[in-house]
Amino acid sequence: MGGNFAGRFKAEPNTLKYNLLSNLPITVILVLILSFALTAINVGFNEVFLMAWISGIPVSGIAVYLVSILITPLVGKMTQACIKKNEF
């Protein structure tokens, strides 16, 4: 998903531009789902829910995007190491 998105902007794999762009789609999805769920748990479904949810999106968006940028390369390296380890 993220790779296709980055490819639309002519970003080459293993570049900073590619990493920044490829993390955007998953960040948007995670932010919307997690902020919705946490707002529902903390505020409940009442008259202030929509405003509380919308106001939490920018803060959670920044946090999720930064974590995604930092974690994605590490997870990719760990995955490649596991794949190479299990090759016969």
Protein described:
By secondary structure, the protein is an all-alpha fold. It has one domain. The protein is built from 4 helices and no strands. Helix 3 (24-42) packs across helix 4. It is elongated and about 55 Å long. This is DUF2798 domain-containing protein. InterPro entries: DUF2798. The chain crosses the membrane at residues 20-45, 51-75. Keywords: Membrane, Transmembrane, Transmembrane helix.
Radius of gyration: 17 Å
Number of domains: 1
Number of E strands: 0
Classify the oligomer. single chain
Treating each run of at least 4 consecutive H or I residues as one helix, how many helices?
Answer: 4
Could you give the distance between the termini? Answer: 30 Å
Pairing-aware structural class of the strands and helices? Answer: mainly alpha
What overall form do the CA principal axes indicate?
elongated
- Report the β-strand fraction as a percent range: under 5%
Average of the residue pLDDT scores: 90
How are helices and strands ordered from N to C? HHHH
Largest sheet: none
What are the segments in which pLDDT stays under 50 over at least 5 consecutive residues? none
Q: What percent of residues adopt helix (DSSP H or I)?
A: over 70%
Protein name: DUF2798 domain-containing protein
Keywords: Membrane, Transmembrane, Transmembrane helix
Organism: Acetobacterium malicum
Transmembrane segments: 20-45, 51-75
Features of this protein?
single chain; 88 residues; mainly alpha; 4 helices; elongated; transmembrane
What order do the helices and strands come in, and which of them pair?
Blueprint: H1 2-8, H2 16-22, H3 24-42, H4 49-85
